[in-house]
Amino acid sequence: MTKLLIIGGVAGGASAAARARRLDEFAEIIIFERGAHISFANCGLPYHIGGTIEKRDNLVLQTPESFHNRFNVDVRILSEVIAIDAGNKTVKIRNLKEDREYTEAYDYLIISTGAAPVRPNISGINNPLTYSLRNLGDMDKIMSVIDTNRPNHATVVGGGYIGLEMVEALHGRGINVTLIEQASHVMRTLDEEMSEIVHREIRDMDVDLQLNTALQSIRFVASEAAVSQDDSEDQDKDNRYGYLELATNINRKLRTGLLIIAVGVRPETNLAQSTGLEIGALGGIIVDSQMRTSDPSIFAVGDAVEVKNFTSGKSALIPLAGPATRQGRIAASVIFGEQDEYYKSQGTAICKVFGLSVASTGMSEVALQNEGLEYEKVYIHAASHASYYPDAETVSLKVLFAPDSGAILGAQAIGRDGVDKRIDVLAVAQRAGMTVEDLQNLELCYAPPYSSVRDIINQVGFIATNILKGSHRPIHYHQLQQLTDGHVLLDVRTPEEIQSQGTIPGAINIPIDVLRSKVSELPKDKEIIVFCQVGLRGYVASRLLNNRGYSARNLIGGYLTWTNAQQRNHDTILQ
Ligand code: FAD
Q: How far is the CA of 38 from the centre of ligand 1 (A)?
C-alpha cells in the first residue's frame, strides 16, 4: 500500500489528495496543514472583506471531516511539517495545538507549501494596524480592525491583483483608500498604455492613487496620544484606537487607520531548501515536467515551484490557483502510475477592478523587450457585442505576435463586458500553437447581445494578418515622436469628434467620407500618417491613399491608444 504525505492543504495539496484517492482506493494519504483550515477559497478572501460574499462559511470549501468523509484522507490541521529526512523518507511534524512533535514515514511526498506575502523591511511595519492577506486568519484580523476601529481611511501598498482587490473591498466598506504603487503603473502584467484605463477607473472611484511612490516608514500612534493630538471629526474616527503615519519617498506624510501590504509573494521553500532539494535562481523549487523535484520520491507543486513560461520557455514564478490545482493533480497522477505532464504556464489571469475586468495571457510588451524577443502588436477598441444592441461596452485589446510566424505571444484586455471571453479564446489559441492568421477563421458564437458578426478576435486576426502581408502599413503611438517634415499627420475623424475629443498636435483634418474628393490637397512626396478614433477608419483611409499612389501608414489603435499613452506620460511627469 502506497503511503503519500502532502504538505499544505489548500489549492495544490487538496487537489493532489483528491486525485490520489480517485486513482488508488487503498493508499494511505495524509495532509499536513499548518493553518486551521484546508481547501479554503483564498481567491475569495477580498470579496468577503468587501461584503460581496456575505457568509464566511462560503469560503471554506471543505473541512477536515468532509474531506475525510468524501476522500478517506487523514487531514491534520494545525500541523506544521518542520523537517524532511529524505534519506530515511520521513517527515517531522509539530502538532501546533498540543505542542508536540512526531515523525511520519512516506513512500512519496508532495510539497504544496505555497507562497508567503513579501514583508518589506520598512521601519515600524510591525504594528497592530498593518496586515497582509493570505488566509482566513489574516482576513479575520483585517475585518476585526475594520469592525472595531472603523477606520475612516486605509492604505494599500502594491497595485498587483491582491492589492487592487483589497482597494475595492475597503472602498466597498465605505473607507477612503489610498493606493501606493512603487512602479509607474499598476498590474505588471499590463503595459503602461493599457494600465491607464485602469488608473482612470481607480481615480474615478475617488481612490487616491499614488504612482512612483515608495513607502519608507510607518509610525504607529496609539489611541490616547492620537485623541489629544487631533480632534477634527473625520480623523477622530481613526484615532479611537490609534492610527499610522506613513512617510513615502515623495515626502508626503499620510495618516491612515489600516495598512495592507500587498507587494507580492515569494515561494515558501524553507523546508525544501533545508532538505537539499534543488532551488532555482528565482527562489522556487525546481521540478521536472512531471512535478518531480531533484529527489525522485518528492514532488512539489503550486506557488512554491518554478515553472517554464509558455512563451519564452524560461523559468518563471506564476502564483495562480489554476496552475497550482492542475499541478497537484498531475503530481498525484504520476505517483500513481499515470503518464501526465505539466506543459508550461501562460500566466492567464483576470482581475476585477471596480467596474472593469482586466485580463491577460502570455507575455507583455515590456517582458518581450526584456527577453529581447521580436514582436509586432495590434490594438483594438471595439464593442463587446453588436453596438446597436443595448449595453455594448468597449473592449480594449492588445495582442502581441511574432512578426515572422504570426505566433501569438501575449494579449491584454480591459473593459466592462466580454473581456474574459476574448482573453480565454486567445489563451487557447496561443496554447494550440495558432497564429494571428488563424484568428480570422475562428468560428465564434454570435447573436447581437453577445458578439458581433466579426468578433473582436476575428478583427484582430484581420488587422494582424494585413500587417503581416504588408497591406496594412502600421505606425505605433510611440513612433509619432519620430515624425519629421517629411510626414503629414492626417486626422480622418469628423470635426465634431475633434472638437469633443481633441486631436494630435500638428494634425490636419480631412474626414474619411470626403477624402476622395480632397485627396489632391495631400502631397505625394511626403508620407501620410493617418489616424482616426480607434484605427478602423484610419485603415480604410490608408488603403485609399496607398491605392492612389500615396505612401500612407495607419496609427494602430488610433487616437484612443495615443491618448492613453499620453495620459500615462503626463502622470509620470507630474509625479
Ligand atoms: P496555498 O494555497 O497558499 O497553500 C499552501 C498551504 O501550505 C498554506 O495553507 C500553508 O499554511 C501550508 N503550509 C506551508 N508550509 C507548511 C508546512 N511547513 N507544514 C504544513 N503546512 C504548510 N489565484 C488566481 O488564480 N486567481 C485569483 O483570483 C486569486 N486570488 C487570490 C487572492 C488572494 C487574497 C490570495 C492570497 C491568493 C489569490 N490567488 C489567486 C493565488 C492562489 O490562491 C494561489 O496561487 C494558490 O492558492 C496556490 O496554491 P498552493 O497550494 O501552491 O498554495
A: 10
Whole-number Å distance between alpha carbons of 288 and 334: 12
Determine which residue's CA is closest to atom 41 belonging to ligand 1: 320
pTM over 0.70: yes
Q: Whose CA is nearest to atom 49 of ligand 1?
A: 11
Confidence band for 569, pLDDT divided at 50, 70 and 90: low
Cβ 287 under 6 angstroms from ligand 1: no
Give mean pLDDT, residues 486-493. Answer: 98
Give catalytic residues, as residue numbers.
Answer: 532
Distance 11 CA to ligand 1 centre (A): 6
What is the spatial distance between Cα 195 and Cα 189, in angstroms, rounded to a whole number?
Answer: 9
pLDDT in tens, 448-489: 999 999 999 999 999 999 999 999 999 999 999 999 999 999
Measured CA to CA, the distance from residue 125 to residue 375 in angstroms comes to 42
* Alpha-carbon distances of 261 from 223, 250, 257, 266, 547, rounded to whole Å: 22, 19, 13, 14, 57
pLDDT tens-digit series, residues 399-442: 999 999 999 999 999 999 999 999 999 999 999 999 999 999 99
Give tens-digit pLDDT for 215-239.
999 999 987 644 454 445 555 555 5
Rounded distance, CA 575 to CA 569, Å?
A: 10
Residue 359, ligand 1, Cβ within 6 A? no
Q: Residue 110 pLDDT more than 90?
A: yes
163 CB less than 6 Å from ligand 1?
no
Q: Is 321 in the pocket of ligand 1 (CB under 6 A)?
A: yes
- Ligand 1 pocket, mutate which of 32, 42, 106 (most atoms under 8 A from CB): 42
Q: What Cα–Cα distance (Å) separates residue 160 from each residue in 195, 223, 262, 348, 546?
A: 12, 32, 7, 14, 44
- Judge contact between 554 and 378, C-beta under 8 A: no
* From 5, 34, 92, mutation site for ligand 1 pocket: most ligand atoms within 8 A of C-beta: 34
The Å distance, Cα 113 to ligand 1 centre, comes to 8
Please enumerate in sequence order all residues whose Cβ is within 8 A of that of 392, keeping only pairs 6 or more positions apart, or say none: 383, 384, 385, 386, 417
Pocket test for ligand 1, best of 6, 59, 112 (most atoms within 8 A of CB): 112
**Of 91, 69, 87, whose CA–CA distance to 6 is shortest?**
91
How many percent of the chain have pLDDT more than 90? Answer: 93
> Whole-angstrom Cα distance, residue 465 to residue 350?
27
Q: For residues 221 and 254, give the distance between their C-alpha atoms in angstroms, rounded to a whole number.
A: 13
For the Cβ of 12 lying below 6 angstroms from any atom of ligand 1, the answer is yes
- C-beta 562 within 6 A of ligand 1: no
Between CA 50 and CA 57, with CA 54 as vertex, the angle to 5 degrees is 120
Residues 348 and 360 sit within 8 Å (Cβ to Cβ): yes
Spatial contact of 9 and 36, defined as CB atoms under 8 Å apart? no
